[in-house]
Every structure is written in structure tokens, then in C-alpha cells.
Amino acid sequence: MSTTTEQFRIDYRRDEISPPYSGVVHFWFTSISSIALITACLVQVSNVTPMEWLTVPFTFLYANLAEYWGHRGPMHHPTRGLKLIFKRHTKQHHRFFTNEEMGFDTSQDYKAVLFPPLMIMFFMLGFGGPYWLVLSFLATPNAAWIGVAVAVAYFLNYEWLHFAYHCSDDSWVRRIPGVGRLRRLHRDHHNPALMQSYNFNITYPVGDWLFGTRYN
After folding, report:
1. Residues 13, 35, 165, 20: what is their CA dihedral angle, to the nearest 10 degrees?
2. Predicted pLDDT of residue 54
3. Contact (Cβ atoms closer than 8 angstroms) between residue 214 and residue 208
4. Confidence band for 1, pLDDT divided at 50, 70 and 90
5. Which one of 54, 92, 140, 144 counts the least CB within 10 Å of its CB?
6. Which helix or strand (DSSP H or E) is residue 171 part of?
């Protein structure tokens, strides 16, 4: 580990991680709250038509492009009203993890990867609620519930994959089919020479493929 990265990690743990913080609790809060909301949405669904099932690929593509542009935009460029996101991602996350040092040292380091609980709640309420209203108005209640369930599932998939990329090199998660390849794409994104230009999808490189920003 370079001296610069090591010192930043020391400073980050001292200044940004409070003693009561538990990375394990943070991980399970993210997982359980997301699964609970997905379940709550799906139990509202019944007698789904083929047209309503089209909400699944539509929402997946929408979420993937939102991930792409959110990452390529405010997460890497200071934007009015969203500077905290830029700070957390570019100024902190990319300095805590580089392409040469991708792994957690302890569970306390989970904070440098997982979204804060308040941001998770904002996402679920601030995005899920309006999305349900739009789909309910333009399509059907079934489509609305399915859409929100898929959106939250995509968010959880984002968190789990991003978490997996930053597990240690010898972690069992690297043996999950497909994770190793996606991790390599994300590792290249953490190369300081590449991070402003390539591999902005953290999950599946659909946006990178569409807009010509996939590297390796």
C-alpha cells in the first residue's frame, strides 16, 4: 500500500468513522430494509399481464442509465446541491481505494463503500414514491409495484456488487460467477488515470457500452 493511501485511510477512519459505527450492522440494514421493501411491493401484485411484465426490463435499463449518468456526472464532477456526493465518492472513496489497493482491511471500512442509511431512505422514498405514482398513472398499479420492486432490487444489487468488488483478493465472493470480471472493470475505474473517463457502470456495463466508455 502506498504511503499516501495508507495515511488517507488512517485519517478517514479517525475523522469519518465514529466509534459506535458497525460495518456489519450497516451492511445488514441495507440488505434487510431493501428486501423488506421489495417484498412489500411484490405482495401487492396479482394477475400480471405480459405488458405489465415489460416494466422489469424498462426499469432495469432506466436504473442502469441513472447509475451511469449519476456516476459519470455528480459523483465525479462538483455539482450545485450535490457536492456531498462528489466529496464522498471522488474525494474519499477513490482515495481510500485505488486500483492497487481495492480491499477492506476491517469491517469498519464498509463505510467507505456502502451508502449512508439516510441516503438509502431518501432513495427509497424520494425515488420510489414518485416512480410508483408515475407508473400507476401511465400504466397500472401492478406495473407500479413491479417497477418499484425492480428499482429497489437494482439498488441492492448495486450495493452488493460494489461491496464484493472491495472484498479482499482471497474472499469467496470472487468465486461467484461473473463477479471477478465485473470487479476487474471496477478496479480499472479506480485507476487515477482512468477514473474520469471509463467504466462508470458499477453493476453491468450497459451504459458504458452504449456511450463508448468501457475500458478493458
Report:
1. 10
2. 97
3. yes
4. low
5. 54
6. none
Strand partners, 101: 98
How far are the Cα atoms of 49, 56, 128, 132 from residue 141, in angstroms, in the given order? 12, 14, 14, 8
pLDDT, tens only, 80-133 = 888 889 999 999 999 999 999 999 999 999 999 999 888 788 777 778 889 999
Q: What is the pTM of this model?
A: 0.94
- pLDDT exceeds 90 at position 62: yes
Q: Which three cell numbers stand for residue 31?
A: 440488505
Pairwise CA distance, residues 101 & 191, whole Å? 10
The set of cell numbers assigned to 44 is 401487492
User: What is the distance, to the nearest Å, from the Cα of residue 209 to the centroid of all Cα atoms in its chain?
Assistant: 18
Residue type, 56: V
Angle at the Cα of 79 (from 78 to 83), degrees rounded to 5?
65
Cα distance from N-terminal residue to C-terminal residue, the chain: 24
104 phi/psi in degrees, rounded to 5? -65, 150
Distance in angstroms (rounded) separating the CA atoms of residues 57 and 120: 23
Q: Is residue 51 classed as helix, strand or coil in its secondary structure?
A: helix
Domain spans of the chain, in order of start: 25-95+105-211
Rounded distance, CA 108 to CA 66, Å? Answer: 28
| Grid cell at residue 116 | 449512508
23: cell is 460495518
